[in-house]
From TrEMBL, chain A:
Lineage top rank: taxon: Bacteria
GO BP, sorted A to Z: chemotaxis; signal transduction
Annotated organism of origin: Rhodovulum visakhapatnamense
UniProt domain CheW-like: residue ranges: 12-152
InterPro entries in alphabetical order: CheW (IPR039315), CheW-like_dom_sf (IPR036061), CheW-lke_dom (IPR002545)
CC terms in the record's Gene Ontology section: cytosol
Protein name: Chemotaxis protein CheW
One family name in Pfam for this protein: CheW
From TrEMBL, chain B:
GO-annotated molecular function: ATP binding; phosphorelay sensor kinase activity
Enzyme Commission number(s) from the entry: 2.7.13.3
One Pfam family recorded for the sequence: CheW
InterPro entries the UniProt entry points to: Bact_Chemotaxis_CheA, CheA-like_dim, CheA-like_homodim_sf, CheW-like_dom_sf, CheW-lke_dom, HATPase_C_sf, HATPase_dom, His_kinase_dom
Entry keywords, A to Z: ATP-binding, Chemotaxis, Kinase, Nucleotide-binding, Phosphoprotein, Transferase, Two-component regulatory system
Organism, scientific name: Rhodovulum visakhapatnamense
Reaction equations catalysed: ATP + protein L-histidine = ADP + protein N-phospho-L-histidine
Ranges of compositional bias, category Low complexity: 282-301
Protein name in the entry: Chemotaxis protein CheA
PROSITE patterns with a match to the protein in the record: CHEW (PS50851), HIS_KIN (PS50109), HPT (PS50894)
Length: 155, 724
């Protein structure tokens, strides 16, 4: 399978792998600002389902998005065991609620496979590529697609 | 620095210069002007002209040149300041400000009154005025002989040598700190001809002598074509301690016989009272600042001269230009600090810490320091309202001139400081109100005479701090509101019923209603239908309140109460459907715990609150914001009465009110986006975020909601029927 265009064959890349709705995903480490434990959020009026609310990140107000719900994989029942991954997308900072964070993967560009374009829901659109891992594969997330709908224009 | 940056600096400097200019013309008008005032005005105009030339702003240069010529005559005493000349000078100052604004907007438009004013100026500038045609940019330098100009000049020629005098006082720790005066002075030799005289009179007798201590002081005289900067570079470690003074320079001219600077060969004694060097440097910098745009190498010389020219005048205020974003960041961080302090306190209290324990009293200190810090940081953003008020002088003059009225603006409390953003955002509503006052408030001359008033109308603009608010008042001594006509107009526009009985204050408040205008003729100043409602909206959006009072035949007064800053506000912490929200205190009229009999059903789902004989719609806040709630409004709810311009009085039903406090305003738009009904967020003592409700938007939401309810009624009914 051809590899996605944004990575060269010889690029050495680092990804943080995470679990959401039982599936393995990963995000390029350069996009991640920090990882923290789930704390209750403040609900936003008229927000879409995946937007759980806003959280105080050292004085910044950041929206928290349920990754599983955003990908159409069902809602996540947040508990203190869950993890929030803070990612920077353009000028915005958002938090993603996930089940857990697993490890840091170091791979070469040539090891990344292109994601198939077939399939349903939002998942294929937001997956940049696939990396084979021990227990199957990890899906590389394109965080910019995860920004709540309707807000991308304002970015 | 790019050209655009330079231009931005130029306009920033222009603002300062225009402030100086209008301050000066204000003194001229008030008759408190001294010789120095005229000089200051001249300097300001000249500096603007010089710098404008550099940016090829021809219209501005042309006008400034004419203006300057007149001011020069005034300065030299060949022009007498009669009322006509004064008027022309005042208007020219306004015109200059307008031209700067136009240049900033990159508009080529020529203001309508410009040709007329230029003619007046030419008339005042006498016969020596050279023919028409734009002056050469070089003309900016024709006044080189003027001793106090903070403008700078080109590099002096080879033949012109600068002479600097440097005093190195006896610094006890000089050797201990690793300095060697020999090496220091040797560096100066490279710059020019150096003469060193050493004063050893402070050397003690033998047994007190400490070999590690320096008892010597020096006076150095450096001759050559160097700049003060290069000297300071050489003395970088001793810069604060040494006194560097330019005694003469190629461009100095008449400044050579400056008072206070002793002849070069004056004998030096230890008793010589040496001026403290720090304030001097500061003053130099301050004086040089207005010239920063055009600054070049001889800046210290110019500064020195400007200092000498007005020894008695107050030292110009030093200002610091800081990117507002940096200050905002600081304010944010301090806001965090305060929240963090509140979080710690809350947690310690929760952990059962006794309030008289050491750590709690330390925490009190922490709180005190944090508040102090916050106030200090807020003060950076605070600006006096003076420039704003001075702009209003201009507005009054322009408006009075075009209406043929004689109006004076009296200002009070110009030093009152408010947040910079508030200053900026007040300009428009204030302009509007001032124009209104000139147009509608002050009567024409005949009417005033008939009413036994002085021909000159007076508008008073004042600012004062009043219990955490800033109070701005605009009053005129005009005819007062014509309530009969206001009422007639409101009736004819269908705003009130024809048979309505209204109190005077209610009639006055009709002015604030959208689309209301009483002007009989639409002048180009006011009466275009954008009236006081716009002013009121602007003030409300700043978190302020506006009120009006008027007495027939005596005048009208508008009072504006504004918060000191936009970064924090007073809020009421409320709870609805398990969520914590903050309502801005400025829009809360009162809070009520209703009796069951005061809540009346209205329609199928609606509720009205009966309060003091009127009925106010009750809005369920949680439902309005889309939070899940099943609860019906009962007397267990607390009702918060809020007032908005569009919807009048509305009662918001909430579960509870827990606190009333200052909250730090956090934008939601940075990382998320605008939310209908929510203006911003804040962080509470427990570190959680609470949303601040936008009362005006909430009420218009409530309006939609009401209509939707009506259309959904049947559907809902069907649903409840099946559920039942």
């Amino acid at each position: 399978m051809p590899r996605p265009q944004q990575w060269g064959d010889d690029d050495v890349l680092e990804f943080v792998t995470l679990k959401a709705a039982g599936q393995s995903f990963c995000i390029e480490i350069t996009q991640i600002r920090e990882i923290r434990r789930w704390t209750p959020v403040t609900a936003l009026p008229h927000a879409e389902e995946a937007v759980l609310g806003v959280m105080n990140l050292r004085g910044a107000v950041i929206p928290i998005i349920d990754l599983a719900a955003r990908l159409g994989l069902g809602e996540c029942e947040a508990s203190p065991r869950h993890v929030i991954i803070v990612v920077a997308i353009g000028s915005k900072t958002i938090g993603l609620l996930v089940d857990s964070v697993s490890e840091i993967l170091t791979v070469e560009g040539s090891q990344i496979c292109e994601a198939p374009t077939m399939g349903g829901g939002d998942v294929p659109n937001s997956i940049l590529g696939l990396i084979s891992i021990e227990e199957g594969m990890s899906r590389i997330l394109a965080p910019e697609i995860l920004v709540p709908r309707g807000l991308t224009d304002a970015a | 620095m790019s050209r655009d940056d330079l231009k931005a600096t130029f306009f920033a400097e222009c603002e300062d210069l225009l402030d100086q200019l209008s301050e000066g013309t204000g003194e001229l008008e008030a008759g408190t002007a001294t010789e120095e005032t005229v000089h200051a005005i001249f300097r300001a105009v000249h500096s603007i002209k010089g710098a404008a030339g550099a940016f090829a702003l021809d219209t501005l240069v042309k006008f400034a040149h004419r203006f300057e010529t007149v001011l020069d005559r005034l300065r030299s005493g060949s022009l007498v300041l009669d009322p006509d000349a004064l008027q022309t000078i005042l208007r020219s100052g306004d015109m200059l400000a307008e031209l700067v604004e136009l240049a900033q907007a990159e508009s080529d438009e020529e203001p309508s009154q410009m040709a007329e004013l230029i003619e007046l100026l030419v008339g005042l500038s006498g016969s020596e005025e050279d023919g028409p045609g734009a002056p050469e940019p070089d003309e900016a330098f024709e006044f080189t002989a003027v001793s106090f100009m903070p403008l700078s000049f080109d590099e002096p020629g080879e033949d012109a040598e600068d002479v600097y005098k440097i005093r190195v006082p006896a610094i006890a720790d000089l050797f201990r700190n690793g300095h060697d005066p020999f090496l220091l002075f040797a560096e100066l030799v490279g710059l020019g001809q150096l003469d060193v005289s050493c004063d050893a009179s402070a050397l003690p007798v033998s047994d007190e002598f400490d070999p590690n201590r320096c008892y010597l002081s020096w006076e150095l005289t450096l001759t050559g074509s160097m700049t003060e900067v290069s000297i300071r570079d050489a003395f970088v470690f001793l810069d604060d301690i040494c006194e560097i003074e330019q005694v003469s320079g190629g461009s100095a001219g008449p400044a050579l016989d400056l008072p206070g600077i002793e002849p070069e060969d004056s004998p030096m004694t230890t008793a010589e009272p040496s001026k403290p060097s720090m304030p001097q440097v500061a003053a130099e910098e301050a004086a040089a600042e207005p010239a920063a745009v055009a600054s070049s190498t001889s800046e210290p010389a110019a500064a020195e001269k400007s200092k000498a020219a007005k020894p008695a005048a107050s030292i110009p205020q030093t200002t610091l230009r800081v990117d507002p974003e940096r200050v905002d960041r600081l304010i944010n961080t301090v806001g965090e600090l305060i929240i963090n302090q509140a979080v710690i306190t809350q947690k310690l209290v929760a952990s059962g810490m006794a309030s008289n324990s050491d750590i709690m009293s330390d925490l009190d200190d922490y709180q005190y320091l944090a508040r102090e810090l916050q106030e200090g940081v807020m003060a950076i953003r605070a600006q006096p309202v003076k420039p704003l008020f001075q702009r209003m002088q201009r507005i009054v003059r322009e408006a009075a001139y075009s209406l043929g009225k004689d109006v004076a603006l009296v200002t009070e409390g110009e030093a009152t400081e408010i947040d910079k953003t508030l200053v900026e955002r007040l300009a428009e509503p204030l302009t509007h109100m001032i124009r209104n006052a000139v147009d509608h408030g002050i009567e024409g001359p005949e009417k005033r005479a008939a009413a036994g008033k002085s021909a000159q109308g007076t508008i008073k603009l004042s600012a004062a701090h009043c219990s955490g608010d800033v109070l701005i008042e605009i009053s005129d001594d005009g005819a007062g509101l014509n309530r009969k006509r206001i009422l007639e107009k409101a009736v004819s526009q269908g705003m009130v019923a024809a048979d309505a009985k209204m109190a005077d204050s209610e009639i006055d408040n009709l002015l604030f209603m959208a689309g209301f205008s009483t002007a009989e003729k639409v002048t180009n100043l006011s009466g275009r239908g954008v009236g006081m409602d716009v002013v009121k909206t602007a003030i409300t959006s700043l978190g302020g309140r506006i009120s009006i009072s008027s007495r027939q035949g005596m005048g009208t007064k508008f009072s504006i109460a504004l918060p000191l800053t936009l970064a924090v506000m007073d809020g009421m912490v409320i709870h609805a459907a398990g969520e914590t929200l903050v309502a801005p205190l400025s829009s809360v009229v009162e809070t009520i715990r209703p009796k069951p009999k005061d809540i009346l059903p209205f329609g199928r789902d609606g509720r009205l609150l009966s309060i003091r004989g009127t009925y106010v719609p009750i809005v369920n806040l949680a439902r309005l914001l889309g939070f899940p709630t099943e609860a019906e409004i009962t007397s267990d709810n607390i009702l918060i009465l809020i007032r908005s311009e569009q919807s009048g009085l509305v009662a918001l039903a909430v579960d509870d009110i827990s606190d009333q406090r200052q909250v730090v305003i956090k934008s939601l738009e940075g990382n998320y986006g605008a939310i209908e009904g929510i203006s911003a967020a804040t962080i509470l003592g427990d570190g959680r975020i609470a949303l601040i409700i936008d009362t005006d938007a909430i009420l218009s939401l409530a309006g939609h909601y009401g209509r939707e309810m009506a259309s959904r009624e049947e559907m809902d009914y069907a649903q409840t029927a099946t559920m039942g």
